[in-house]
Amino acid sequence: MVRFIWRYLRGRLGRSVALLTGVLVATTGFVVLTGTTDTSRLVVTGVLARETSAAYDILVRPKGARTPLEAEQRLVRPNYLSGQFGGLTLDDWAKVRGVPGVDVAAPIAMIGYSTMSLPVPFDLTDAVDRSLDSQVIRIDTTFEAERGLSHGVADPGFVYVTKNKVLFLDLVDDAAPLDRPSRYTDGREYPPVDCGGDIAAFPPREVLPDGRTVPVCGIGPEVALTTHPGAGETRSELTGSWLFTAHLRPDGRFETDAHHRPGTPVAAPVDRLVVERYVSVPYLLAAVDPDAEERLVGLRGATVAGRALTGGDRTADAPATANMAAQRVFPVIATSRSYIDMQGNTRYSRLPPQQVAGLRSAALLPALTGPRGTPAGEWRGDVDDRYLESVTDRFASDAWGDLLETVVQPGPTTYERLPDGTLRATTVPQTPNIFGAGRFAGLAEPWLTADPWFRPLKRIELVDSTSGGAIQSWKPVGVFDPEKLAGFSDVSRVPLETYEPPAAAGADPASRGALGDRPLLPGGNPGGYLAAPPLLLTSLSVVPTLFERHPAQAAAPISAIRVRVAGVSGYSEVNAERVRAAAEEIARRTGLDVDITLGSSPAPQTVELAAGAFGRPVLRVGEGWSSIGVASRIVRATDRKSLILFVLVLVVCALFLGNAVSAAVRDRRTELAVLSCLGWPARRIAASILGEVAVIGTVAGLAAVGLAAPLAALMDIRVTIGQAVLAVPIALALALVAGVVPAVGAARTHPATALHSVRGPVRGTARRRRHARTVFGLSLVNLTRVPGRTVLGAGALAIGVAALTVLAAVTFAFQGTVVGTLLGDAVSVTVRGVDQLAAVATVLLGVVAVADVMYLNVRDRAAELATLRASGWTEAALVRLIAYEGGLLGLLGAVTGAGTGLAVAAWLVGEVPARLVAVAVGSAAVGVLIAGVAAIVPTVLLRRLPAARLLAEE
């Protein structure tokens, strides 16, 4: 048997080599290309919430940004971005924007917390007893936060009111040295006074009835010129008493230095006695791209005063002058709400008349902190009101905001899980000197920062406080109302949004009772548990300037990129798959953490908070965390679409090989019949045929093993040894599958066949052939005479053209990715380079199959063609006949394949757009063209036919 097989293969060496080459090409291509099916794929797990929507569909964060809790339970706490500072570059943003299907990619860069000094006015007009020559009004303030559970009692302040004339420092000469006499509002110069503070001071001077002037010193370190937090200020609102001096004029009006403007020789009298103190409120500063933010949430449309940010906003630098240091100002827009739960409760009391003027600071405080005296009124105010008034005033007066030379960046909160499933927020040690003085004001310390911290804080110096560089501050150019932003609804909102304030309701009866059935809100502690959203927004173009002293953060300033996918409006299976495909491509291009927020749903989570330092008890609160139940992860998965294409390469090769083996069996029918007459059983005849193709398959497989590695290296594809060795069984299986049908046919050969000489499987009667009166008609008849062979050739080409049509549709009609449904499941198809290579290989093998069919047709009808030539047919007519057959065969395969590809693509997207039809027509034209080229091979064979010998045999 072995010798028999070997003799046959050697006897038909050319045909054997052709078959071996086909198997080798198909097997090698399959093994190498399958090395690329192991791709990065975004796997979506969990159940999507059908009834939710958000302003964006995908969230992109720095690699490793997911917390352990998020990775474990796919939960994201509200305002998680408040603890994410930088990590993404502008190049990352550009890559995300460039992903097909991305409609909007909006970056946000969290810069950090600073403090804003908000004026708190105390109107003491009605507290003054105008019958007294002098009096002291005591001001006792208690700050409340966190629904009144935290109480911060401030040291008392005092206002000294006298009917005696009071002299104030003349601010026309405010730049005079502090160690030399300075001019007062009476035009005379007075020496500095040692009130007991660290520096010499020029306090107000009371003019006594005898004409003498006596200084009215301040209390504590605040003995200088102003009540505004100044250089060296590290205290909070609770620390340090103070004394303010006012002159009650005979006309009932008041004179104070609070109303004394620089450049004026005297303080203008006022009708009401209003003393302003300042409360430090932390705010979060963030940067956005104005154009992207407008497209995402309609930021410009939410502007309620001034103007919106623009992409052209930059820092403005002003050089130093004789009386002013160099300035650097950057534009911001401010929210119309601070979302900070803090109030001030103040009680006024009038102390008995006593000596104030002439006492040093150390003696003043004991003299004033005795009995509280007679109640004289009270005041209550909300920090949120003061915030809006302050921002509006600064905007209306074209004034600067506060200095920004230092920011604080908090880290993430960590948790421990209690036995009942509650999360206990972990407290962290407080960092000393995280707040405090900078070159000018630094960061005044909000009083609630003495409460336990749930997040670590890091101080970032934006300006070198030891140098004489520019003074850096922000300036409001507009105000926006976050509740006017587009894209949210109360029903579907989930707390993933940049502008939404966090709120936590009581989760047990004790907590609900303590909170008064109201939600817990941020209280003004950057290290606290609840963090307010950004209060100030600036342009992303400003960030490199702000972080010029910190190159790493300047290079990667973006905290997150929020992505909206084109064509997605609400949930559907197709939209979900469209978002998944875009997210997968973003992850593949960037390697960043990518989460799908489409379908995110609120996931209430109970959190336990430790007791505070200002009276807040232990609380259990329920937060509306976000379940990104469409949680995603990057895994190594097989690209099934690519694998299908690679299998098609083997299928087309099997069709080509099966057709060739069938033709060989038909050629040997007489030989096989003789073997049957000699006693060979049917199984042995079938085994001989299978043995021949098995040898070809095995040799091709072994050759493919040797070719796979270098070819893969050349194409930069990773192919393991195990994958390469698979070439042998694949090639063998391919050859055996292709040879099964011909082998079974050979086994059924009847011994009587030995009595006939049959050239080919010519079907059709003479009557049918007489109807073919033209060359074209005869070509059509010739194809129908061998229907099996025609179907094999056309089918092989159709498979290749169908694959080409689908890939071309995805590439040209849908920009590389198409999303739709198949059998009720949402799927997406993304074209890769190897897919295109596989499709081209499939088409080429189909063309080889067409050429082989035409070759076999010419060979089997050689005598017939010789007869036509002898009867007067010209060479051109014979060539035209073969060309028509090749064209018709190509047309049949190309149209069938293009139609199938069009149907698959249309089924996938649910419609048949004109561009899809155009792609299908183009693919069909390509198929017909290359099939016509394939017809050249048999026309060459036609010219070499030995007409005389063939006619003699006939």
From TrEMBL:
Membrane topology: Multi-pass membrane protein
First-listed, main subcellular location of the protein, grouped into a coarse class: membrane
Disordered: annotated segments: 500-519
GO cellular component: plasma membrane
Domain of life: Bacteria
Entry-linked PANTHER family: ABC TRANSPORTER PERMEASE YTRF, MEMBRANE COMPONENT OF TRANSPORTER-RELATED
Membership in a protein family: Belongs to the ABC-4 integral membrane protein family.
Official protein name in the record: ABC3 transporter permease C-terminal domain-containing protein
Lineage, highest ranks first: Bacteria, Bacillati, Actinomycetota, Actinomycetes, Micromonosporales
